[in-house]
Amino acid sequence: MPERAVNDKEVALITGANQGIGLQIAKDLASHGMTVLVGSRNLERGVAAAETIEGDAHAIQLDVTDAASIAAAANRIRSEFGRLDVLINNAAISNMGARPGMTVEEYARATRPSNVSLDEVRAVWETNVFGVLAVYQAMLPLLREAPHARIVNVSSGLGSLTANSDPNCPYRQIFGPVYPASKTALNAMTVAMAIELESTGIRVNAVAPGYTRTNLNNYSGTETVEQGAAEAVRVALLGSDGPTGTFTHAQLGTIPW
Q1: Does the annotation count 183 as an active-site position?
Q2: Which residue in 27, 107, 136, 179 is the catalytic one?
């Protein structure tokens, strides 16, 4: 059995961390002295990603849509590292049925409530919503044992019902049942988790990275991964007196639900 990590070092698990924002979050948290667990559906990609991180980084096979994979990851964390202080639910997909070269606007028109494939909705929500809840349930026993655990759910401003109810919202026309609404549901899960855990001291918050250049949007974003990771890292590093049940962005501050 591998030796356990030093118990006085905080351990952070980041799902979907083999690339993009998740990998940058892992790099930043490692630079703050944490042991980072690079969650990746494909273990080889996770190992390759962990090798790019300066600090204490370990790849862990974790498919948020696979109950056995989640359970195995939780068991490995307990047996090998002995603790979990921070959970960052970052793994997400934007679509399953977009054609190569399809623009965001074209995809939005193809996924209106009146014409969207229910299979497309289910596939995206399986990762973005149900996957987050499944990982939360599996990792919560470990988090409850931590001195002051934190959970960060990586959401999106596209999920804000308040913003999308405003006719002047620039992104309103791409709001639909697939990715944007999955983030609305994730925000609801965040509030539900925060309410459940408010008496325990475990902080649960949602963050919006902004329109970041990642594989999620075919690298069409306008912000760097460093900018996109910044708010998740800030919230993950908050102390025991930090807020819970919030939705924030690095530059915009609090985002309305």
Answers
A1: yes
A2: 179
Parallel/antiparallel/unpaired status of strands 247-249 and 253-254: antiparallel
Catalytic hit among 27, 136, 183, 211: 183
Q: Which two tokens stand for residue 121?
A: 């909705």
Mean pLDDT score across all residues of the chain: 92
Q: With CA atoms as reference, report the closest residue to 245 among 209, 192, 186.
A: 192
The whole model's pTM is what?
Answer: 0.92
Tell me the C-alpha distance between 19 and 92, whole Å: 12
The proportion of the chain whose per-residue pLDDT surpasses 70, expressed as a percent, equals 93
Find all residues with CB under 8 Å of 246, minimum gap 6, and list them.
205, 206, 235, 254
Q: In whole angstroms, what is the distance from residue 23 CA to residue 30 CA?
A: 11
User: Cα–Cα distance between 184 and 166 in angstroms, integer?
Assistant: 15
Decide if 211 is catalytic: no
**102: alpha, beta or left, given left = phi > 0 and alpha = psi -120 to 50?**
beta
Confidence at residue 214, expressed as pLDDT on a 0 to 100 scale: 53
* All domains of the chain in start order, with CATH: 11-254 (3.40.50.720)
In tens, the pLDDT along 187-239 reads: 999 999 999 999 999 999 999 997 764 555 454 555 788 888 999 999 999 99
